[in-house]
Amino acid sequence: MTVHQWRGVIEEYRHLLDIPEGTPAVTLREGGTPLVDSGWLSGLTGAEVWLKVEGNNPTGSFKDRGMTTAMSVAVHEGAKACVCASTGNTSASMAAYAAKAGLKPLVLVPEGKIAAGKMAQAILHGGQVIMVRGNFDDCLRMARELSEKYPVALVNSVNPARLQGQKTAAFEIVDFLGDAPELHFLPVGNAGNISAYWMGYSEYAKLGKSTRRPVMRGFQAEGAAPLVNGAPVADPETKATAIRIGNPASWDLAVAAKEESGGSFTALSDDEILAAQTQLASKDGVFVEPASAAGVAGLLKAVAAGEDFSGKQIVITVTGHGLKDTATALEGFGQLVDVVVDADVDEAARAAGLA
Ligand SMILES: *Cc1c(COP(=O)(O)O)cnc(C)c1O
What we know:
Elements lengths: L8 H5 L21 E3 L1 H7 L2 E6 L9 H14 L4 E5 L3 H13 L2 E7 L5 H9 L3 E5 L3 H14 L3 E2 L5 H7 L1 H10 L5 E5 L4 H15 L8 E7 L4 H4 L21 H11 L2 E5 L1 H15 L9 H11 L8 E6 L7 H5 L14 H7 L4
Parallel strand pairs: 2-10, 3-4, 3-6, 4-5, 7-8, 7-10, 8-9
Antiparallel strand pairs: 1-2
Helix pairs in contact: 3-4, 3-7, 4-5, 7-9, 8-9, 9-11, 12-13
């Protein structure tokens, strides 16, 4: 018996990807992530709400979609080393794909701001981690210059191969739903993802695989909301570290996605983001990292402001897995377990209120 296994985004969608012909796929079989229906959010809004759960990718975030293409092209072009700036997930992903490809991964991260899980991934996959006394934007500038002056391939989303891989998430959504949704919500940091989704939706509409393109609504943290403010933020600050970015590299593409789709950028407080993270975990069983909950927080905020979504079809991308940053997830919980009993069934039953 042969069982079909998802082959990863390059082999599944190669004919739709603008990468050099014959590029060998460096893959961990990323993509093919589930669209999970959100009973909680559908009930709350009267809409049909789907979660695109990108934490199910091999390294736990959507970054793997773009990393398979960026790393494959780098290998095809003969690279021996690669570099990225990262708030955590890009470095985790790059290090894993570099390990698979046999390249040397060099990671630039802002000092003291990386979630423990992501740091563990970068290190275990063999990344050489260099901490920079500065923020993500400083790291990205350095990564760009390193790749210009030294023989290392830059795999941040300024590398066009990244968006080629990332646009496959939009293809998967349309392939599953049979058309594009009416609305798409997602967090926005460096803005590569919203740009890639818009590219994917636009290409599928052009090919006649969908009859429409969704309204794109991007969400940023209040302390790191350059696209909402219309100006870069010098010292971005938020607990949602994956979107702690003050000067998005894909600024123009993101603005085009917003304008062409009739969408918007909205800022959310950290409290709103963290509350959405907790509720999503307890009501839908989907544990995401803080930044990943921004799209859900955005929907909750719009509903609270009186917006009517009844009858609409909405997809929310939840970008990365909750296990990457358990420290932030548990911050609001105080003492975690306050009941301790002897190894006695009756005592446990009494403590649980069953007896
Ligand atoms: C990278 C990342 C984002 C932000 O995506 P951009 O493409 O930088 O806008 C959001 N959430 C998670 C979990 C990420 O890793």
